[in-house]
Description:
Largest sheet: 5 strands, mixed
Number of helices: 1
Shape: elongated
Amino acid sequence: ATTTTTTITPTTTTIPTITLDKSAKRTEFMGSIGIAKSFRLTGKNIPDNIDIKLVKGDQVIQATDIKVINGQVTYYIVVPPKDTAMTTVGDWDLHVTLDGSTTIQPAAVRFEFPGGLYFYPTKTSSSALKASASASQPRIAYTLSADQPIQLIIYDVVNMRPIFHRTFAAGQTGGKVGYNEYIWDGTTDSGTTISNGSYVLQGFSNGKLIGQTYFVVID
């Protein structure tokens, strides 16, 4: 009888993996122009056709110039300029797709306005102010270096009279260290809707002016 011996050589499956720190968040401040910033990821067996993007609702920012070298992935994201759509501000999820499988890191990147006081967009309308979706409404944004009380006042430029006041206690929403945002529906202190015209927004803390900006309402 003849005995035949078959040798089976085990195969190694090289499964691509990406390491995501679900607790990490990177903050980028929007400037006057869009600037590409470098980002990095680590992993194993990463294919060259890796796809990376930032997603916020129905908005997508596609990563560019993606390079894979020894388990390190370098890619670039263009940080939006501050005169783009106001919904750019806030947290974006990172979507990484490997071989058809997508891994998501929630709130991986936050876009904020730089230090100062902003009313965004600087040109708005009564319909935008009264939009049913808060994401479409104008907002007041500012960044604080510490918890502090904040007072916001909007003036009618023509008469220089205050039409809107709002105060926030230190440590509470609107008075917290870091990025603060207040969505305004255009309702004045008297309960009416702001009319067409030019306006000044001022921010104060402990009696000191911390910022001033302008905006217009045109229908």
